[in-house]
TrEMBL record:
Record pathway: Alkaloid biosynthesis; taxol biosynthesis
Source organism: Taxus chinensis (Chinese yew)
Name the record gives this protein: Uncharacterized protein
Keyword Cell inner membrane among UniProt keywords: no
A single MF term (Gene Ontology): acyltransferase activity
Pfam family, one: Transferase
Amino acid sequence: EPVKVIREALLRVLVYYYPLAGKMRNMPQDGKLKVVCNVDGVVFVEATSPNTLFVLRDLDEFKSSFQQLLIQFLSNNPLQDIHPLILQ
């Protein structure tokens, strides 16, 4: 199963690149953007679509079929809890 293989490979890689599993956060004390490492991990989304990759071939034209596949992260504060790595 491809998703299982990708997820397990990601787990192994993040041992060495653990900051990618954290969240970037604007620290109120000094206003600096820092990576906060916690147990939340990387956002990993598995999805299916009735479309083929042929439908998505031209990404210059942002098609509605492509937009429906993207996950949306809405935040009131754009500098809080930014995931440096999102795998979809």
